[in-house]
Design a protein that fits this description.
By secondary structure, the protein is an alpha+beta fold. It has a single domain (37-204), classed as Cyclophilin. Helices cover 22% and strands 25% of the residues. The chain has helices at 2-22, 36-40, 69-80, 172-179; strands spanning 26-29, 46-54, 57-63, 91-93, 97-100, 133-136, 148-151, 164-170, 195-204.
């Protein structure tokens, strides 16, 4: 009996160690007082991440700070200012994408930290070649504001039309769950899907 207890203890310790090792090391976090300037200063062995807490679950995103610095700065500063807190996913299309970032909840609102709009940051070697890509919604070239979307399938026809500034690290199951909710004729969910808050973290790679 004692031998079995010892084995169980060893197994528990190993499982805990593996679980701890799999968790990314957080270097700085917005919910622990880190400034936006600090978080945006991302080293080669670091990753900038956004933890998006929704009423359906948590989605973790990697932000491409090196490739799309202006777009990432806009998203980070808006997030840290609480701009996205309480905002709904106002447009959801099954087998395509989920969209949020409009405080009006209509798809017509929102603005950037730089004014109404700012220019695209199209990176030639970053494509919509996987589900879970994070990109800016727009009304045409150089009309980025605060709205963003996450794809649920590959969408190559969007290449060079939208700035891709991140991708899903974890929580793709949450993204897929949101993408399957019932919507009205305007593609707006019948029951609100809400962003509670977004925490920005700088992590060790």
């Amino acid at each position: 009996m004692k031998h079995k207890k010892n084995i169980l203890l060893i197994v528990s310790v190993v499982v805990l160690s593996i679980s701890t090792a799999c968790k990314p090391k957080v270097i700085a976090s917005s919910d622990e007082g880190a400034s936006a300037d600090n978080l945006l200063n991302v080293g080669e062995r670091e990753v900038l991440a956004a933890v998006v807490e929704t009423n359906k679950g948590t989605i973790e995103l990697e932000l491409f700070a090196g490739q799309t610095p202006k777009t990432v700065e806009n998203f980070v500063r808006l997030s840290m200012n609480g701009y996205y807190s309480g905002i709904i996913f106002h447009r959801v299309i099954k087998d395509f994408m989920i969209q949020s970032g409009d405080p009006a909840g209509t798809g017509e609102g929102g603005e950037s930290i730089f004014g109404k709009f700012f220019a695209d940051e199209i990176v030639p070697n970053i494509h919509f070649d996987d589900p879970g890509m994070l990109a800016m919604a727009n009304k045409g070239p150089n009309t980025n504001g605060s709205q963003f979307f996450i794809t649920t399938v590959t969408t190559p026809w969007l290449d060079r039309r939208h700035t891709i500034f991140g991708k899903v690290l974890s929580g793709m199951d949450v993204v897929m769950e949101i993408s399957k909710v019932k919507v009205d004729q305007n593609e707006k969910p019948i029951v609100n899907i809400t962003i509670n808050k977004i925490v920005i973290q700088k992590r060790a790679r």
